[in-house]
Amino acid sequence: MKQRLILSPNFSNKSRSKSNIKFVIIHYTGMQSEIESLKRLKNVKSKVSCHYLINRKGNVTKLVDENKIAWHAGKSKWKKFNNLNNKSLGIELVNKGHQYGYEKFTIPQIRSLTKLCKKFKKIYKIKSQHFLGHSDIAPIRKKDPGEKFPWKKLSKFGIGNWYKKINFNRKEIKDSKKRNIFFKNLNKIGYRYFSLERENKKIDSLVIKSFQRRYLPRKLTGKIDKKTFEICYFLANVKKKT
Asked: Is 139 within the bounds of a domain?
């Protein structure tokens, strides 16, 4: 895969080994153009960077070496891991995002992303379920890569989890127990930033929407409806792919 090199100064100097890279985090740039995005990713004052940027034509720009820690994830959690910059590679996709006019990702863009992710999976032995969106690891403050990102398509290449046809035979669950079971399953999948014991309607809704952006992108209600509950239950209890 052809790449151009435009190095960003925004990374931690300490090098890391291959075994320390366990995740790939996918973002959108959320800016009005590729030029503006690159300016920000190279600006020392912004303190933001990523390892790779993929533009609308599918062209790939490398900004930080993979053995260095880029600053893309910010405050984040997934399972037992905090601040995922340390354990991840960050890929930015040029897209105006929700603030400036959220766009569909282009076919060349997704094609290049798929090639890059397949390469990372092989080199770093990254598990399928460890390809995540920024909103997965920071659901309270982030929406990217958003509901237009084709997680289902990528899952066919072993990039990210998806669910199969669900035959849900459990007895009807009382509303009083539904939240507790749902969030226990979310916790099992890897999501954080919510309390298992105490309901917080605002935070709960943001976390549910993050889950729906990925698995039910046409139904961003922020509520635990039947389909949302069933998908969460399936993903929490299915045997994980490697």
From this structure: yes
Last residue of a domain, one of 126, 155, 184: 155
Burial class (CB in 10 A: 0-12, 13-18, 19+), 4: exposed
pTM of the model: 0.95
Mean pLDDT per 10-residue run, the chain (242 residues)?
Answer: 92 96 98 98 98 98 98 98 98 98 98 98 98 98 98 97 77 77 97 95 98 97 94 85 50
- For residues 108 and 57, give the distance between their C-alpha atoms in angstroms, rounded to a whole number: 6
Domains contained in the chain, number: 2
Q: For 22-56, give one letter per residue: b (16+ CB within 10 A) or e.
A: bbbbbbbbbbeebeebbebbbeeeeebbbbbbbbe
Nearby residues of 193 by Cβ (< 8 Å), 6 or more positions away: 77, 138, 139, 140, 203, 207
26 with 125, same domain: the answer is yes
Query: Would residue 92 show up in a list of annotated catalytic residues for this protein?
Result: yes
168 domain-assigned: no
Instruction: Give me the domain span that covers residue 196.
Output: 175-237
Q: Within this chain, do residues 88 and 38 fall inside the same structural domain, yes or no?
A: yes
Examine the domain organization and report whether 100 and 186 are in the same domain: no
| Angle at 107 (CA atoms; ends 103, 112), nearest 5 degrees | 110
146 and 179 in a single domain? The answer is: no
Q: Which of 99, 125, 155 is the C-terminal boundary of a domain?
A: 155
- What is the residue-wise DSSP string for 119-174? HHHHHH---GGGEEEHHHH-TTT--TT-TTS-HHHHHTTT-S---------SPPPP
Catalytic residue among 34, 66, 92, 199: 92
CA 69 to CA 22: how far, in whole Å?
A: 12
